[in-house]
Amino acid sequence: MAIGFDLEGGLGVVVPDKTMTRKSAPKVLKAVFGDGYEQRVVNGINNIHETYSVSFRNRTKASIDDIVDFFDTKAGVTKFPFIIPDTNSGGEQTVQVVCDDYSTNFEYDDFYSLTATFRRVYEA
């Protein structure tokens, strides 16, 4: 399967633009002492907080409407599978994400753009 996500309901797979970015931030508990000494420990089992910034530029209004409807249905609560490049193997991997926010840009005529932020979730 290609990089992206399935809109479900027979609408097919949506592939984001090549400018997709992944931001990773480890969650760490710190104890800082007055003399500059510091201790750190991993906070939780899945302690790497990952977000993905994706964009869909210059797509038809119908395509953007399908994506917006999908995000509206998920309401920032329901997870969905997102296929990303696997930097370790050179292949692909599937992660579970929720869409925290998205915005639509009205470009020209019937062509719109959309940007979104996905947050990786770790749940069964």
Percent helix: 10-25%
Q: Which regions have little confidence, pLDDT < 50, spanning 5+ residues?
A: none
Extended strand count = 9
| Biggest β-sheet description | 5 strands, antiparallel
* Shape annotation: elongated
The overall number of domains is 1
DSSP strand content: over 45%
SSE class: mainly beta
The whole-number mean of residue pLDDT values reads: 90
Distance between the termini: 22 Å
Radius of gyration: 18 Å
CATH class: Mainly Beta
Task: Indicate the CATH topology.
Answer: Elongation Factor Tu (Ef-tu), domain 3
Fill in the keyword field for this structure.
five-stranded antiparallel β-sheet; 124 residues; elongated; mainly beta; Elongation Factor Tu (Ef-tu), domain 3
Q: How would you describe this protein?
A:
Helices cover 11% and strands 53% of the residues. The protein is mostly beta strands and 124 residues long. The chain has a single domain (5-120), classed as Elongation Factor Tu (Ef-tu), domain 3 (Beta Barrel), CATH 2.40.30. The longest helix has 14 residues, at 61-74. The radius of gyration is 18 Å and the shape is elongated. The mean pLDDT is 90.
